[in-house]
Write a structure and sequence with these properties.
CATH class of one domain: Alpha Beta
Number of strands: 10
Order of helices and strands: EEEHEEHEHHHHEHEHEEHH
Shape: globular
Radius of gyration: 18 Å
Strand order of the largest sheet: 6-7-8-3-9-10
Strand content: 25-35%
């Protein structure tokens, strides 16, 4: 297994006001691997995901201590430009959230925000991103129609294309298939398997089978603490801790 470290957290703590949501999280994320974050609702999975691209900065009275390192640099350093950071670390949310624009303009959005004006460049990047998201054959004849006319599964792949258009290095996915039917879910899973050749992918999922199918590494969280992390096969077949085993086998959670 390729162990090229892309990103890590070091003694990461997070607080919503007085309430501590994450406790001393130390976790490594490797290039071209999928890391799944699992655990019961409210255990801190989505909170840590949002710490990784500073989305939690937007929450009033929240604070972080510890470090999140991307390519050797602490993303919470005061000199870090957050807009640039978020173009390096793309995010796909639980519910597809296309903009009320055309399919083309949804994917071009991040490029325009970055100030790119070259029409030919934008067209090429949009087409390539939609192709990478395994959506091109379904939308190429209606690229200028509203994205809101797409099915839920298509909208989610469009959101993945939108995230990819600015060429991020890391993709964060917060339960990207939980709102989708089984066929759309399968397409998203196949897409994730392809995309890890290009990106470091970190996914939050409630679906144990999904974590087992698509991830290389699985990290189990409980009550804001990282309980166990290992290669996915080991977590699901030979976990070290009884607490992990109990969760995986459905005894709690």
């Amino acid at each position: 297994m390729d162990n090229c470290l892309k990103m890590c957290t070091k003694k990461l703590n997070f607080y919503y006001g007085e309430s501590q949501a994450l406790h001393e999280i130390c976790l490594n994320f490797y290039a071209n691997q999928v890391t799944a974050l699992i655990g019961p609702s409210g255990c801190g999975k989505s909170t840590i995901l949002r710490c990784l691209n500073r989305m939690n900065d937007l929450i009033p009275y929240s604070r972080v201590d510890g470090q999140v390192i991307l390519d050797g640099e602490d993303i919470y350093d005061p000199d870090i430009d957050v807009v640039t950071l978020r173009s390096r670390i793309g995010m796909v949310f639980q519910k597809p959230n296309p903009f009320p624009k055309s399919i083309f303009e949804n994917v071009a959005y991040g490029l325009r925000v970055k100030g790119i004006k070259d029409r030919a460049f934008i067209e090429e990047r949009v087409e390539n991103s939609i192709k990478r998201a395994a959506l091109w054959d379904e939308v190429k004849d209606r690229i200028n129609e509203s994205a809101l006319g797409l099915s839920g599964g298509q909208q989610q792949r469009l959101c993945i294309a939108r995230a990819m258009a600015v060429e991020p290095e890391v993709l964060l996915m917060d339960e990207p298939a939980s709102a989708l039917d089984p066929i759309a879910t399968q397409k998203i899973e196949e897409l994730i398997n392809e995309l890890k050749k290009l990106y470091t992918i970190i996914i939050v999922t409630h679906n144990m089978q999904q974590a087992a199918r698509i991830s290389d590494i699985t990290a189990f969280f409980y009550l804001g603490s990282l309980i166990e992390v290992d290669e996915t096969e080991k977590i699901f077949t030979r976990p070290t801790l009884k607490q992990t085993s109990d969760y995986i086998t459905g005894r709690f959670g």
